[in-house]
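User: I'm putting together a teaching handout on how multi-component assemblies are represented. Below are the sequence lines for each component of a complex, exactly as they appear in our records. Could you produce the 3D structure of the whole assembly as structure tokens, so the students can see both representations side by side? Please keep the chain order the same as the input.
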Amino acid sequence: MIDLNVNEYVKPDSLRVAYDVLISDSKNQIIGGGAWIKMASNKEINTLIDLSNLNLNKITSTDLEFKIGAYVSLHELERFEELNKYYDGIIRQAIKEIMGVGIRNLATVGGSIMGKFSFSDLYGVLIAVDASLEFYQQGIISVREFLENKRFDKDILLHVIIPKKKAKGFFKKVKTTALDFAILNVCVVKDGRFEIVIGARPGIATRAVRTSEFLDGKDIDDKVIEEALDILEEEIKFSKNAKASKEYRSDLALVYVKRGIKEVIK
Amino acid sequence: MKVHLTINGYKKEFHVEVGEFLLDTLRNHNYTSVKKGCDSTTCGVCTVLLDGKPVPSCSLLTVKADGHEITTVEGISKEASDLSEHFGHEGADQCGYCNPSLALNVHALKNEIRDPNDEDIKEYLVGNLCRCTGYEAQHKAIKSYLEEEK
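Assistant: Of course. Below is the structure of the complete assembly, with chains in the same order as your input.
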């Protein structure tokens, strides 16, 4: 039996109270869906803060964007049909390959983001579509900025904001079994400009900025793609872990970025 | 900590540690149809329905389920029995350890996806591991059950 070492569990009725509890002790933390909490079983937690009472489980849609509450489950987001009309449905595609439905019913969008899991399939697409995050104290920042910054770790994520763009999109997760984490994931989006993001390298998802910029404004043919892949190989750092070697990841990335580019220029 | 759950329609009160998971709470109180498998969110045999949605009880803190409805296979006994007929007909049963969770997932699938195709069924049940059957017979049984339920 695995039990967590947790002293207290609170369900605040206001963001103010939740935030005060969060910052009052470095061992206090917010629980999202709790799907990954077993990973923290060796961690001492003083108070777990459950935000279920704070109305963060809604998805709203305006002309310009989707606003997704941090407590929306991954499966709810996956089943939100309107989202599929954008980016060729790659957000749904990325989510539906995350383990089974049961876990996706537990796991929240907010928990998946705040966990900063390097194997995350969600990060790649959120970075590629230039999603933003709304925090209680620090306001709205891009996912890209969030990943480069630790100052949001003691803030409360309220919403994920996804701009509505009729962009072309490609997503590929490489895994050994249906339930496994990614060996690598690749996301390519084209909305006028290219955006290529590689995740589970096994480091956290990162943008291939130089590669994307090289492709921008060019007539894409096989020669241009090969030149872009040379830049990608130089630009993105891969490494090995128990799942795959550095070389295998690099080879996979070159193949799937090539397919991704061809897909989004159709 | 005091926790109130409605299990299969009956209101229950439990005293649990904050770090206790629902799987252990249920099994400690004789809901033994909820099986313990990998205990790490992978195999799916600990599945229960939380407000009608399948979740792995090994990864859900009992305190987080406070105030919610939990359904185990006993809560859908008629459906489980009907599904079991199809399993028998297709030879989809072997050790049976994964059957309660599979029945709950099929119940949820039926409620969530109208007229699911082969791919929908496979995708929905991917988190339900079975080490005996190889899935083909299960798939046929579930498909014929869903056809009959239309």
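A couple of points students might notice: The two ends of chain A are 52 Å apart (CA to CA). The interface with chain B takes residues 1-9, 31, 34-35, 37-38, 48, 50, 52, 75, 79, 96, 99-103, 105-106, 178-179 of chain A (CB under 8 Å).
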